[in-house]
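Hello again, I could really use a second opinion on something today. I've been staring at a protein lately and its backbone has me curious. Please have a think about how the structure follows from the sequence. I owe you a coffee for this, so here goes:
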Amino acid sequence: LLERLAGEVANVQVEAGQWIMREGEAADSMFIVRSGRLEVVDEGPPERTIRILRRGDALGELALLREGKRSASVRARRDARLFELGRAQFEALIQDAPSFALGLTRAMGAQLAASRTPMLAATTPRTIAVVGLEPAAPTAGVAHQLADAFSLHGTTALLSDGELATIDQAERDVERVVMSAAVLGDAWGDLCVAEADLIVVLSTGDRRARWHDRAASLEGCELLVFGPAPAPGVLEALRPREVQVIAQEARRRSALEATARRLAGCSVGVVFSGGGARAFAHLGVLEELTAAGLSFDRVAGVSFGSLVGAATAAGFTPEGTYETCQRCLVDANPANDFALPVYSLIRGAKTRRRLQEVFGERRIEELPRRFFSLSCDLLARETVLHNSGLVVDAVYPSLLLPGVFPPVPTPDGRLLVDGGVLDNLPVAAMARTGEGPVIAIDVTGRKRRSHGERPRPPRRPRLEPLARPFRRALTGSEIEIPHLSETIARTVAVGSSDTVASARLHADLVITPQVEGIALMDWKALPRAAQLGREAARRALAANPDFPGSLRGSEIAGKQ
């Protein structure tokens, strides 16, 4: 069969980014991946990757069997080499070679199973290429350190030269293969890039380096910068999934160990929901999780949860974050710079100044933990993920309750407000990379009042006789209702309640402090909210004593 196939197929080479087939096209051949990586794409909108194809995978055979049109689009994710088998040869093999038909049936069964998955299943990479953008990049040293770190999570091989058979044998022998390529463009470097499930790109920040002609094959990489922060053009060209700037030599080992934990699927992530002043409960949860021996390599947050998340990612202790919230939100309420209510109730300048005092010019890429926040683009009606750039520029728009704060216009034409408008618990965005268990802390508060339950008593009972006439004059009712900013905040929470419910399904552990009695804009509730967070964390840890298994305090925690 192999000899016959060798005589029947045509050799095809495609570059990264090139389409092999498009949905709806007439089918006249099938392909087998010889090397490289392809992606099966639902072109949308929005565009969605359904499946990754690697060496040995087949594509296009179903359309030949049905004598129909292509049911999906396929694009080269890396430079790839393919075998192409025409319709006539395909039909002859089906009739004459039972082993070919059996193999085809198995391949289609695997595709059917993959098609039933609603999104691309996150898998940890088995082959990792470490490549340098410039000759000065510390490729060999970083590859060695990464391989050592990976060996804590399974058998690992480090390759610095060889051919396709060398990589193939290593994949059979060990769980993970790290390939080091000092130079892009030679045979070994091109092979590493083509065969890698994930590419770790190293840069010294030298803007004179010539690599842009190969940018397409490096898209979606992990970018590690050992020098100044990368220029915007670098990020636009590579579109990395993560960026880290490791300027200090003393940080290199811990940063690479954390990277290995993430890529091996052994890192704990934590996601902080929005919730206004209720987000203070996150601080108590953090205290208890830290005391229990948990540490985090990945942090995310939305709305006021993004503030807690950014502080955590920056290396603040739970006590330090508590003190920061006390100083910046309680002692000096930043939400009292009221404006003429044409664009918003609050100007927002005071809030941004407070954030600037806390984070200064820190960039997300330079933080010791990976971090992202979410905002909402009012014009495109979609979430915007912030995982690079200034921390202040990531946190500030995520805080902006529409109507309370003015939206932030951006140079690229977006109009940003609180990310909680669309997703108040962004667990799915973190879980989709498959880098380890995720803890979700949900402080939205959704307690329903039971039938016959009495309304809560007024907050200031002594002033209630005086307040009733004013309420009646302003609202037509004596019953106490939330203030305008509180109503807006609650409306935002209601609008994203379905995404919160969905997000909880992606989390490995959900902690839900009972914060329903705290008003969303009650900044004085910091001590009470933090205590409710502590109590909720204790309950969750007691109910899940094995979480996250053997990783607590050891593999996951590591040394920050």
Remarks:
- The CA atoms of residues 128 and 178 lie 5 Å apart.
